[in-house]
């Protein structure tokens, strides 16, 4: 029997989402773009939605994930904190583990 396994991975604290694939993409895009607004635009979400995701994550974790600098003549920007970078690495490691389990289970089902 051939089949494909599907799954979703996310981290919760007290029943509320801290990190999932969408929030992972947001953090990665902020890291790449150096800007929350550019990251939001690239992902096709509003700045307000991106900001609300970040604030919710920070509140649930009790730590800053993004440091921002207001715009102006030289422009603003955003950088990930060390905590955000650690969170990304741990989440990526978790997703890779799930992918490994998925591949092994699918190959056993062939």
What report would you give on this structure?
The protein has one domain (11-108): Arc Repressor Mutant, subunit A (Orthogonal Bundle). The strands form 2 sheets. The protein has a two-stranded antiparallel ribbon with strand order 1-2. The protein is an alpha+beta fold and 110 residues long. Helix 1 crosses helix 2. The longest helix has 27 residues, at 82-108. The radius of gyration is 17 Å and the shape is elongated. It has helices at residues 21-33, 36-43, 47-61, 82-108, and strands at 10-13, 16-20, 66-69, 77-80.
What would you say about this model in short?
The protein has helices at residues 21-33, 36-43, 47-61, 82-108, and strands spanning 10-13, 16-20, 66-69, 77-80.
Protein topology:
Layout lengths: L9 E4 L2 E5 H13 L2 H8 L3 H15 L4 E4 L7 E4 L1 H27 L2
Antiparallel strand pairs: 1-2, 3-4
Helix pairs in contact: 1-2, 2-3
């Amino acid at each position: 029997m051939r089949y494909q396994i599907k799954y979703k991975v996310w981290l919760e604290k007290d029943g509320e989402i801290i990190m999932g694939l969408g929030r992972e993409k947001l953090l990665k895009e902020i890291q790449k773009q150096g800007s929350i607004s550019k990251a939001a635009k690239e992902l096709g979400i509003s700045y307000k939605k991106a900001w609300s995701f970040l604030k919710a994550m920070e509140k649930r974790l009790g730590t800053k994930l993004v440091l921002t600098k207001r715009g102006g003549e030289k422009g603003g920007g955003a950088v990930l904190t060390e905590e955000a970078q650690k969170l990304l690495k741990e989440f990526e490691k978790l997703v890779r583990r799930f992918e490994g389990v998925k591949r092994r289970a699918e190959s056993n089902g062939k």
